[in-house]
Write a structure and sequence with these properties.
It is a single chain. This protein has one domain (about 5-185): Maf protein. α3 packs across α4 (about 130-140). A hairpin with a 2-residue loop joins β3 (about 65-75) and β4. The protein is elongated. The longest helix has 17 residues, at about 40-55. The chain is α/β, with parallel strands linked by helices and about 190 residues long. Helices cover about 30% and strands about 25% of the residues.
């Protein structure tokens, strides 16, 4: 059975490559706009499912992985900053506080009827950060395409006081522990 990652994210692609499985990536067609009053975890689950369905509808015999991550600071969603000024504002707001991440994951196959969705929570407690430290970090890593304005797999780890969660890969955008479990349930064991 072919495996498809419904994503064009280089971060998710690199994460899935860790499992040493053959797969391909296809871009899903999904509107990622939050619904009014939608909770972060519900948004992550809905978007992961929509992304998987978008690809599964035209590839019904394949196992399709959909994933989406939503970051929240005190109830406010943190999107991808897009530029230095927005990233600086996000990190200044996050300094000394906890940011919660919800990574939705769906695995589905239309032909077999398999479908499962999970949401992996993960929290990051930021250190108190001086504006100069934030500017130095942003100049060095430029995480403008990352929700929360950091790359935990890189220099961004220096921004944290602690990380709280079961699966650190979920913070990077694809929860590999949950994914390996879902693949096993779908009859595609990673270690076979």
């Amino acid at each position: 059975m072919d495996l498809i990652l419904a994503s064009t994210s280089p971060y998710r692609r690199a994460l899935l490559q860790r499992l040493q499985l053959p797969f391909r990536c296809l871009a899903p067609a999904v509107d990622e706009t939050p619904l009014p009053g939608e909770a972060p975890g519900a948004l992550a689950a809905r978007l992961a499912l929509a992304k998987a369905h978008s690809i599964a509808s035209t590839h019904p015999s394949c196992l399709v992985i959909g994933s989406d991550q939503v970051a929240s600071l005190e109830g406010t969603l943190l999107g991808k900053p897009g530029n230095h000024a927005n990233a600086r504002a996000q990190l200044l707001a996050s300094a000394g506080k906890e940011v919660r991440f919800f990574t939705g994951l769906t695995l589905c196959c239309r032909d077999t009827g398999f479908e499962a969705t999970v949401v992996e929570p993960f929290s990051v407690q930021f250190r108190h950060l001086a504006p100069a430290a934030i500017d130095n970090y942003l100049a060095r890593e430029q995480p403008f395409d990352c929700a929360g304005s950091f790359k935990c797999e890189g220099l961004g780890i220096a921004l944290f006081q602690r990380m709280l969660g079961d699966d650190p890969s979920s913070l990077e955008g694809l929860p590999l522990i949950a994914l390996t479990s879902l693949l096993e349930r779908a009859g595609y064991p990673v270690l076979a």
